[in-house]
Write a structure and sequence with these properties.
There is one protein chain. This protein has helices spanning 17-31, 39-42, 44-52, 114-123, 140-148; strands at 8-13, 58-64, 67-76, 97-105, 130-136, 152-157, 166-172. The protein is α+β, with helices and mostly antiparallel strands. The chain has one domain: Gcn5-related N-acetyltransferase (GNAT) (Aminopeptidase, 3-Layer(aba) Sandwich), CATH 3.40.630. It is globular and about 45 Å long.
Length: 177
């Protein structure tokens, strides 16, 4: 197993989705193997297509040799439609937002630093002011990890009837080192 610093990071955009779609689905199947009975988890391919269909879609996939380790992807929020603003009164003046939709690492490479490397590589050099993401509230260690990267919880939401309740987390860009 390779430690995160040795991963081969490959960047992809909306145009690459046909090439990388199955890789994302395969990583997800491994990462969520014990939860594949959950209807929300089973809908992951819809989310890949939804986010990948966004012209600003950006994805970073990490490889250990030829083996995909994990990925992070997201897209810029539409100007004026930063849905997280409802949680802050007043909202910050800086509002250009990159929505981090997924960060996923296969079990074999967890606790190697891969998640931080993938996440930060996704956001490095972005021209947005903020990053937003959601974390299942039943995973406080994951929320604490994001807090250690500069995020803060600003609210909670359940965006779909079958989804978990999520902590909405916001960070200023660029992230601290």
């Amino acid at each position: 197993m390779t430690i995160a610093a040795d991963l081969d990071l490959r960047r992809h955009t909306h145009d690459d989705l046909p090439e990388i779609r199955q890789i994302l689905l395969d990583v997800h199947a491994d990462a969520y193997a014990d939860q594949m009975h959950d209807p929300f988890v089973q809908r992951f391919s819809w989310f890949v297509d939804h986010w990948g269909g966004h012209p600003g879609f950006h994805c970073v996939i990490g490889y250990d040799g030829d083996e995909p380790v994990g990925f992070a992807y997201g897209a810029p929020a539409a100007p004026g439609r930063e849905w997280w603003r409802e949680f802050l009164d007043p909202p910050p003046e800086a509002s250009r937002t990159f929505a981090v939709s997924e960060l996923m690492v296969r079990p074999r490479w967890r606790k190697t630093g891969a998640s931080r490397l993938l996440h930060h590589s996704l956001l490095v050099g972005r021209d947005e002011d903020l990053a937003v993401l959601c974390v299942d509230v039943t995973h406080p260690k994951v929320q604490a990890l994001y807090e250690s990267w500069g995020y803060r919880k600003v609210g909670e939401q359940q965006p779909f009837a079958d989804s978990p309740l999520f902590a909405v987390m916001l960070a200023e860009l660029p992230l601290p080192d």
